[in-house]
Design brief:
The chain is α+β, with helices and mostly antiparallel strands and about 260 residues long. It has five helices and 13 strands. Helix content is about 20%, strand content about 60%. Helix 1 packs antiparallel against helix 2. The longest helix has 13 residues.
């Protein structure tokens, strides 16, 4: 790496932690991290981490089993005219996650989620960085740091993400953009809604939609209202949009 950069590489065959009758076991933890100093903060040009397996047990009873997890991320600077901004990208995947409860067992497969947060004011990022390190319990410091971020606005993007369950696949992607605002402007949910513009696209297999819905009647009502519609591929689809504080699904106004 360039002079001044730091790089760490790790490889852990296994680790087991116990407290009372509860235990956490990790196997096959590997990764690498690159850090780059930038004035008074650290940027992360590259982060990669992989975990073959993790499990949580209470006594002899398994509570959680995770296999095939991976995380990739980066935090870097960009230019917008004379402004220096900070952009973050994170993406995680999990091959399988099993949750054991007293009465039932849940299996999730092929989980993938990506988040990007861009357009963060460089000074705001620095203020948040130092608040987290030195003034973690000081609400005034956090408020001042958040103000530096919100006064320049931000853009949050959910890249194509998915979750597979026993009854089918759920896919989602979307974005939210904020107008520049001061934290003092917020006086409840209504004031926040007027400052955000966004969209979220959802696709789900019909069987999975029925499983996630509180009742078949409620799912039918949403379809009749046009909020959820079938696609030519047999999935159920909903396009949520928020503009000037108003929310719609597939073009139909939603009360909220």
């Amino acid at each position: 790496t360039e002079l001044g950069d730091w790089q760490a590489v790790w490889q852990l065959a296994g680790l087991q932690l116990s407290h009372g009758d509860r235990s956490l076991a990790l196997r096959g933890l590997t990764g690498q991290l690159q850090l780059m100093p930038a004035d008074d903060v650290w940027l992360i040009p590259q982060l990669q981490a992989q975990l073959q397996e993790a499990s949580v047990q209470q006594g002899e009873k398994p509570q959680l089993l995770l296999t095939g997890a991976a995380l990739r991320g980066a935090v870097h600077e960009s230019k917008n005219g004379l402004l220096t901004l900070v952009d973050m990208q994170w993406r995680g995947t999990i091959d399988q996650l099993t949750l054991h409860q007293p009465s039932q067992r849940h299996e999730l497969q092929d989980l993938a989620m990506g988040l990007s947060l861009g357009g963060i004011d460089r000074q705001g990022y620095s203020a948040l960085f130092w608040s987290a390190i030195t003034d973690f319990s000081d609400p005034q410091a956090w408020h001042a740091a958040l103000n530096r971020v919100t006064r320049s606005g931000f853009h949050l993007q959910l890249s194509p993400s998915q979750l597979r369950m026993q009854h089918g696949l759920l896919r989602a992607e979307g974005e939210i953009t904020s107008r520049p605002f001061d934290m003092a402007q917020l006086a409840g949910l209504a004031s926040l809604r007027s400052l955000l513009q966004g969209s979220l696209t959802l696709h789900a297999d019909p069987q999975l939609a029925r499983q996630l819905s509180p009742s078949a009647e409620q799912l039918g009502e949403l379809q009749q209202a046009g909020y959820i519609a079938p696609t030519e591929h047999g999935e159920l689809h909903s396009q949520l949009r928020m503009v000037n504080g108003k929310l719609s699904a597939n073009g139909y106004k939603l009360p909220w």
